[in-house]
Design a protein that fits this description.
The protein is of the alpha/beta class. The chain has helices at 15-28, 59-66, 70-83, 85-93, 111-114, 118-128, 147-164, 181-188, 192-202, 208-220, 234-247, 252-260; strands spanning 2-8, 34-37, 49-52, 101-105, 131-140, 168-173, 227-228. The chain is built from 12 helices and 7 strands. Strands 3-2-4-1-5-6-7 form a 7-stranded parallel β-sheet, sandwiched between helices. The mean pLDDT is 90. Bound molecules: guanosine-5'-triphosphate (GTP) and magnesium ion. Residues 15-16, 39, 42, 105 line the site of magnesium ion. Keywords: GTP-binding, Hydrolase, Nucleotide-binding.
């Protein structure tokens, strides 16, 4: 059984930075981890890239040869990835042992989980190769300043969750930039009633029904939960990683082994 994180979220939300911090953390604690770049537009990396979509296809070539713009070019590259899952991804995965921990640094284009099935197929491919996969959705805390932005962030995350059907962890990134932590507290694990009254205050009375339906939806999917991540703090990275590990049952086999040898159990 292998383990994988699919790191997703809007452009600039801090996915690649998270990946490199995670890499450094794991290195420091002596834990094996491999980061894979799935962003054909990425150029600089702060982490050693285990393997890279740019070895399969180059965005530059696509834009030049097909006359596509950067976003159309990216979609083309991702569709190309989808067509090559069986060859390319299978071959790359063969370089890793059965129980390895992989982290996929994805592009930020929202179309990737709202319009096209590439990431869904990617995930299904990983699952068929016996990987436990977790969706790690990063949202920039800078946008968590009022309820309308919060709801819109939730909706984007929800659309990824519905598309991918994966265990899902929401992370509020860039907490070091938040000067007033109290403002954010309102949105970390908010009461649906609080969100609804805030929304109703912000918007005209004609939206009351829609607001109620939105909050109920968000509540039903248990979406209303974000883990704050402050990359300056080792403890924060450790906590986030522990939450994700639980989601993909990483470390549980190790626990069983320890329990097997527990002398207390012998009588
Ligand atoms: N202060 C602060 N800045 C951050 C943090 N994480 C990322 N950034 C900055 O935010 C910008 C975007 O970060 P990236 O990690 O490239 O974001 P990304 O989600 O990978 O972006 P795309 O790949 O373009 O979608 C960069 O300028 C980072 O330096 C953080 O925790 N704190
Ligand atoms: Mg990136």
């Amino acid at each position: 059984m292998g383990y994988a994180q699919l790191v997703i979220g809007p452009a600039g939300s801090g996915k690649s930075t998270y990946c490199s911090s995670l890499y450094r953390h794991c290195e420091a604690v002596g834990r094996s981890i491999h980061i894979i770049n799935l962003d054909p537009a990425a150029e600089n990396f702060d982490y050693p890239v285990a393997f890279d979509i740019r070895e399969l296809i180059s965005l530059e070539d696509v834009m030049e040869e097909l006359g596509l713009g950067p976003n159309g070019g990216l979609m083309y590259c991702m569709e190309h990835l989808e067509e090559n899952l069986d060859d390319w991804l299978t071959e790359e995965l063969e370089n890793y042992l059965d129980d390895e921990y992989l982290v996929f640094d994805c592009p930020g284009q929202i179309e990737l989980f709202s319009h096209v099935p590439v990431l869904r197929n990617f995930v299904d491919h990983l699952k068929s190769r016996n990987y436990n996969v977790c969706g790690v959705y990063l949202l920039d805390s800078q946008f968590m300043t009022d309820v309308t932005k919060f709801i819109s962030g939730c909706m984007a995350s929800l659309s990824a969750m519905v598309q991918l059907e994966l265990p899902h962890v929401n992370i509020l990134s860039k907490m070091d930039l938040v000067s007033n932590k109290k403002d954010i507290d309102d949105f970390l694990e908010p009461e649906p009633q609080f969100l609804l009254s805030e929304l109703n205050q912000r918007m005209g009375p004609q939206f009351a029904k829609l607001n109620k339906a939105l909050i109920e939806l968000v509540d039903e999917y248990s979406m209303v939960s974000f883990i704050p991540l402050d990359l300056r703090k080792e403890s924060s990275i450790k906590y986030v990683l522990a939450q994700i590990d639980t989601c993909i049952q990483f470390g549980e086999d190790a626990d069983v082994k320890i329990k097997d040898f527990d002398p207390e159990d012998d009588d």
